[in-house]
Amino acid sequence: MNVNYPSDKVQAAGAAVRIRRLEKRFQSVIAVDGVDIDVSAGEFLALLGPSGSGKTTILMSVAGFEFPTSGSISVGTEDLTYVPANKRNLGMVFQNYTLFPHMSVLDNVAFPLKMRGVPKAERYARAEEALATVRLAGYGSRHPNQLSGGQQQRVALARAIVYRPRVLLMDEPLSALDKNLREEMQLEIKRLHAELGITVIFVTHDQSEALTMADRVAVLKDGRIQQIGPSRELYERPANLFTAGFIGEMNFINVTAEGSGGNISVLLPSGERWQLPASAAVEPLTGCQKAVLAVRPERLQLGDAHNGFTFRVKVDDVVYAGSASLLIGTLPDSTEIRARLPGASDLSALALGSTAVFTIPKEAILLYPGAAQ
Amino acid sequence: MKPALDRGSLALGAYVYTVLAFVIIPLVIIIPMSFGQNDHLEFPPSGFTLKWYAEYFTSRGWRNATWLSIQVAFLTAICATLIGTAATYAMVRGRGQLASLFQILLIGPIIVPHIALAVGLYLFFQTIGLSGTVPGFVLAHTVLALPFVVFTTAAALGKVDANFEAAAMSCGATRWTAFRLITLPLILPSVVSSAFFAFIISFDEPVVSFFLSGVRQKTLPRRMFEDIEQNLTPVIPAIATLLIVLSVAILLGAYAMRSRARS
């Protein structure tokens, strides 16, 4: 690698990744369908989507294990689209650790340096250093099967960063770990990212993982990007119905909407009519059309809070879960409504089968053209 | 309290011991016969002598046959292991649609009667002048040994995570280096044990050798059949006993290899 590291590594260690009109077909199946992504140097990008959404194929194309049908991939100023995997100089962490079982931990971590012809003494010194970076100093003489899953994944991380690649690729690296370990590793990876300033592309199907770890999240479905943006934007203003339903929980109510001037008037199934601000419409509305009103369960308030619209819900179930309670109910037209109420709420009036009044604050409402399933 | 033996488990026990007896009895008969003093085969043998062993080791004909068989078996082991391992790799790791056709072709020699293969190879080798030569025997035996190599290494390769090589390549290794440094060491015990199998299969092979042997170039099994037809002296059980010892040693070696692989 002909990259000079300035004294301040955090500034310049990462490289920008540009993915242009990427397309990948497997026979008649289109796995990736015209994807454009710009990852800036040092950014942490998560690729999030259900299985079959193409997120892994995109990562494998960047890694060099799949060659795209068309489109291009470049890292820094280099076009890597058809460069073999072993010439890309990218770090990669796989789902199942993939530590070489017949080598010691130190030999595993030193392996990339060995492939680059680094002399033995230097490569062991640098491997020790990388192990210390992932807080496994002194584990070098062990064998991978003597380590726990979390430790193995940290060794894999050390192996991926030991030669200071400009980009680190991670393919669902935490999905094999149990919940506590996963949270610990999430912090560990974030810390490493901040410390090394490396560009990270992280594939996951776990949305909370994507939202908590990444600077930006790309939501994928059927090989296409649905939305790409910071976590907060994704959660608070999903760009379309798919993202709205995929990220977090969302209530959907089918309505008829009519835009006029700065206001939008929606007709609810109950026959009520609400006047919404124009900002509620995620996509501009034209005339009178079918639309979906979306609202997060935690935005619903019990009782009339005098700051929005009120509506009645028949209570079907109340689930107490400590910090919050989940109320499941139905509207008169049998649309299901969920509400997350703070743990301290007084729920004594909510007998099953009774009717409760809820308030939706005006600014919590989003409106999408189309219809919910 | 010890449960009473019921008829079912008695019958099962009897069955198991009968099968074992059928397997063991020929060995128990052949070994004493090799020490008999008379010039013809007899059981139980009378007297005790090592002269049949001496004859085997001193006779030029037996020595030549043995040396040919060893050469052929050794080269077969190498060829079958190299080709078989490479083919298995392609079969297990390859994404091609030809993989299943490939698999059938590779294990074909087990299904095709050896006599059919032998006749075919005989006619073919006659015309191209390979009949009765070391390369001819090695080629033929390699075909016969390939399925066993493929079975043994495919089982081992199937247990090695394909992502190991991907990981090695992401570390900068070429595909060949990744195979050499990662996959091969992990399947090596099975590869070595399949080489042992190939050796035994070649060393012990009578049918194809019968057709391919020339007047002077005879493998040990071919020579033994000749001797059975013409003389039938206890030198045959003597050689059989030596072969049993050799086979057991090789099988134990292969077993040790594989149990090392498992630990």
Automatic annotation (TrEMBL), chain A:
Q: What does UniProt give as GO cellular component?
A: ATP-binding cassette (ABC) transporter complex
Q: Where is the ABC transporter domain?
A: 17-247
Q: Which PROSITE patterns match?
A: ABC_TRANSPORTER_1, ABC_TRANSPORTER_2
Q: What is its EC number?
A: 7.6.2.11
**Keyword terms of this UniProt record:** ATP-binding, Cell membrane, Membrane, Nucleotide-binding, Translocase, Transport
Gene3D superfamilies recorded for this chain?
Answer: 2.40.50.100, P-loop containing nucleotide triphosphate hydrolases (3.40.50.300)
- Does S-adenosyl-L-methionine appear among the keywords? no
Q: Which SUPFAM superfamilies match?
A: MOP-like (SSF50331), P-loop containing nucleoside triphosphate hydrolases (SSF52540)
Oligomeric state and partners? Answer: The complex is composed of two ATP-binding proteins (PotA), two transmembrane proteins (PotB and PotC) and a solute-binding protein (PotD).
Q: Enzyme class, one word?
A: translocase
User: Which protein is depicted?
Assistant: Spermidine/putrescine import ATP-binding protein PotA
User: What SMART domains does the record tag this protein with?
Assistant: AAA
> Native species of this protein?
Microvirga lupini
**Gene Ontology BP term (one):** putrescine transport
Keyword Transferase belongs to the record: no
- Provide the function of this protein: Part of the ABC transporter complex PotABCD involved in spermidine/putrescine import. Responsible for energy coupling to the transport system.
Q: Which family does it belong to?
A: Belongs to the ABC transporter superfamily. Spermidine/putrescine importer (TC 3.A.1.11.1) family.
From TrEMBL, chain B:
Output the InterPro entries linked to this UniProt entry: MetI-like, MetI-like_sf
Q: Where in the cell is it found?
A: Cell inner membrane; Cell membrane
Q: Please list the residue ranges annotated as the ABC transmembrane type-1 domain.
A: 66-254
Hey, what's the signal peptide range on this chain? Answer: none
* One GO biological process term: transmembrane transport
Topology in the membrane?
Multi-pass membrane protein
> Principal place where this protein is found?
membrane
Q: Does the record's keyword annotation contain Kinase?
A: no
Similarity comment: Belongs to the binding-protein-dependent transport system permease family.
Its name, as the record gives it, is Mannopine transport system permease protein
What's the source species for this entry? Microvirga lupini
